[in-house]
Amino acid sequence: MMPERRADVSAVDLRRLLPAWARRRLALPGHRSVRPFEDIAIRASRQAGDAAVLRDDDLRGSPDDAPEWLLALAAEAASRGLGHDPFQEQLVAAAALHVGLAVEMDTGEGKTLAGAIAAATLAMSGHRVHVLTVNDYLAERDAEWMRPVHAALGLSSGHVAQSASTDERRKAYQTQIVYVSASEVGYDVLRDRLATSDADRVLPRFDAAIVDEADAVMIDDAMIPLVLAGEAPDAAHDLVEATRLVHRLMAGRDFTVDSDHATASLTDAGFDAVERALGGINLFEPEHAEALTRINLALHALVLVQRDVDYVVTDGQIGLINTARGRIARQQRWPDGLHAAVEVKEGLTVTPPGEVLDSITIQDLLSLYPHRSGMSGTVRSVAEELLEFYRLPTTGRSRHSNDAPTTAPSAPRLGRSLCTFWIAVGASISRCSPNCVTASICGLLQARTPSTSST
Q: Are 183 and 290 in the same domain?
């Protein structure tokens, strides 16, 4: 009798097969219900009348630190400072940010105001808050835009730009709410580490962080190091001869490039050609190590680094392109001589090569904040990563009624209970061969009606 074939269900990560809406419905790791925050927002709205009759001085100091009352005060401050009341959905998002969740809000649904209200409630609770943006422009814009909201509550606020002096940075970090790009905070940390006295440090306080575009900053850029570089103690190497030699080499014969276009390596024929051109030296002897380094730098600059893709040339200078943002990274350069090699390639004046003094990743930087929250239009798709890397749960929020999507009422709904769902999965698997387990589960998951509810 042939042994019964069974599907190896243990080899299938069922959570990975579930779409985001199903993980939220089943309360799987990474997702939290939005309903508790809707309740807080409703209670805050009920207290809006009490907040509205307060004098300006009374609005700036309240002994009551209940979340709904702080939210009501911040909403009233927004009304007085900006001239319009926040939507209920913005209050829901602010309530979730206040307790340390990542909140999904679509573009145009008011993340800036929701973040400002959350920053205000956190500051009124005694926290020092950093609102982390993706660039200087947004940091300055949002700080100036939301300043009347925070001022109405008696809260100090500021922003840090790349062009800010040490004194300006220190003054901004002393305020209760600071708008600053995540990378700028990272570089301030690195500079403070190298400073020899407190007079040269800006001393950012790491307490609460609200991250705008959380999926991009916390996941896409998580492991990209922020590198603080200085000039090497010796003068810039003369890379002109190395660049001239590399130009003579032929791809495939003298050097190869890997499939990821990340590494270029000389072949045996390439080493022979270079060593002959340099007078028959052996590049692997210790006394010729610097020559080998120059050849590799020139090869990397010529083959792997592309103009108008990785950098631009403006006013006789190399400007690095931040590929994640599509912007020119000001005051940044490649370390270890690569920047000088690209300058030689482009026929520019060679500046002294940089050396790495210190570095930090965005993930390590954000781990310095005991209280973390974030907002973006696509946090649900990275919910598991946010939970794994930052212990940061996610939640949605009900859409504003004006942009609520239409749904198809005729589609069958997923079973109401977790038990019913997994009974259906098990029954389907029992009828399948091992090759159809995934298809069976996906088929079950597709039989549902899209819902405007975010719970």
A: no
Q: Are residues 300 and 371 in the same domain?
A: no
Domain count of the fold of the chain: 3
Q: Which pLDDT value is given to residue 405? A: 39
Q: Check whether residue 65 and residue 156 sit in a common domain.
A: yes
Lookup: tokens for 49? 């009348």
Neighbours of 434 (CB within 10 A): 14
Domain assignment present for residue 235? The answer is no
* Same domain assignment for residues 306 and 391: no
Contact 282, 272 (CB under 8 A): no
Q: Are residues 71 and 204 in the same domain?
A: yes
For 403-431, what is each residue's pLDDT tens digit? 443 333 333 333 434 554 555 555 555 44
Pairing of strands 394-395, 371-376: unpaired
**Which of 74, 216, 221, 207 lies closest to 149, judged by CA?**
74
Residue 140 inside a domain? The answer is: yes
Taking only the tens place, the pLDDT of each residue in 13-53 is 444 455 555 555 554 557 888 999 999 999 999 999 999 99
Confidence category of residue 436, pLDDT binned at 50, 70, 90: very low
Q: What CATH number corresponds to the domain at position 204?
A: 3.40.50.300
Maximum pairwise Cα distance, the chain: 89
Domain assignment of residue 420, given as a range: 1-28+405-455
Of the three residues 288, 322, 352, the one that is the final residue of a domain is 352
